[in-house]
Specification:
Structural class: alpha+beta
Strand content: 25-35%
Distance between the termini: 33 Å
Helix content: 25-40%
Length: 313
């Protein structure tokens, strides 16, 4: 469980991977790019990322594991978000928070053997040594996505400024993450942020709670969203050359699963926490979350088996 508060490549990843310049090239070396990964007939397209390693085989295995994590997110994940404002009696007694929880199947090995790539066409390395591999994974994607990438004057995708809420009958969401130490971590956090945006579009409730502390009243305005997503698919990723931030456009479908008690736990954390620092909660200590894990495992396995049956047909 998690909480999460390129010189252009010499090799082009054909039609499904765009590496157009994004912003001015500094000192002759643009280390960043953008990736368009639309699903193909009978296959997903996912980008696996690895930093520089001692051997090519090691880089491929790390990229494969990274891609497997994204396939797992496709099969299903639970996302719960709490955001809002805490307003106290003092003039400066005010803070804003956003906290989200993402869970998906961590048993990634079962996806490894089905992740395929052509080392002559689908592997690229940038000047920083970061390896990008375009994998395909057999999946019966339930739709036909018509999508073309449009650009803003600064080179960013149009959806960065105007996020869509629906594409091809799927809920759409845009996520972003500031630069992390490793690019694959930045991309993963951006993916999870996009999933949170999708859930917030699907269902959001707002409530106001007043609490009395030491004779003074504090007001908490909370926005809560929670949902189980399937067929989470990334359509495009853009890496901002100015700061290394990663932006993700993704789509998914929302499934009705009643696990709202965990969202209540996130709310309680914020109502009882005095600090504005990130709140860390150890879910392994709670019996309720152990039951939540069991529920997730059953749901993940059921969805995986259904996908296997669809492919066999």
């Amino acid at each position: 469980m998690k909480r999460s508060s390129f010189i252009l490549a010499a090799l082009l990843f054909c039609a499904c991977l765009s590496t157009e310049p994004s912003g001015p090239i500094s000192s002759g070396a643009d280390r960043f790019g953008n990736f368009v990964t639309l699903p193909r007939s009978g296959n997903l397209v996912v980008i696996g990322v690895s930093g520089r390693q001692s051997s090519r085989d090691a880089e491929i295995e790390i990229a494969r594991e990274d891609a497997a994590r994204k396939v797992s997110m496709y099969h299903g994940m639970w996302v719960s978000i709490v955001s809002g404002q805490n307003i106290g009696a003092g003039f400066l007694d005010y803070n804003v928070f956003t906290d989200f929880f993402v869970d998906y199947d961590e048993q990634l090995e079962k996806y490894f053997d089905r992740l395929n790539f052509d080392p002559d066409r689908d592997l690229s390395r940038n000047n920083d040594g970061v390896v990008f591999i375009r994998f395909t994974y057999p999946a019966a994607f339930p739709g036909n996505i018509s999508y073309s990438s449009m650009r803003n004057p600064d080179g960013s995708p149009e959806w960065v400024r105007n996020p869509p809420q629906e594409i091809g009958g799927f809920i759409a969401g845009v996520g972003t993450s500031g630069r992390q130490e490793r690019l694959r971590d930045t991309m993963r956090r951006s993916y999870e942020s996009a999933a949170a945006a999708i859930v917030s579009h699907a269902s959001t409730s707002v409530q106001t709670i007043d609490t009395a502390i030491g004779g003074q009243t504090e007001t908490h305005i909370l926005r809560e969203s929670a949902g189980f997503l399937t067929h989470f698919t990334v359509l495009e990723v853009w890496i901002d050359s100015r700061n290394g931030a990663v932006w993700t456009l993704a789509i998914a479908r929302s499934v009705d699963v009643d696990l709202s008690f965990f969202n209540d736990q996130l709310v309680d954390d914020h109502l009882t926490e005095d600090s504005t620092d990130e709140i860390i909660h150890d879910p392994g200590e709670d019996i309720e979350v152990e039951l939540l894990n069991q529920s997730f495992e059953e749901i993940f396995e059921e969805i995986f088996e259904e996908e296997e049956e669809e492919l066999e047909e």
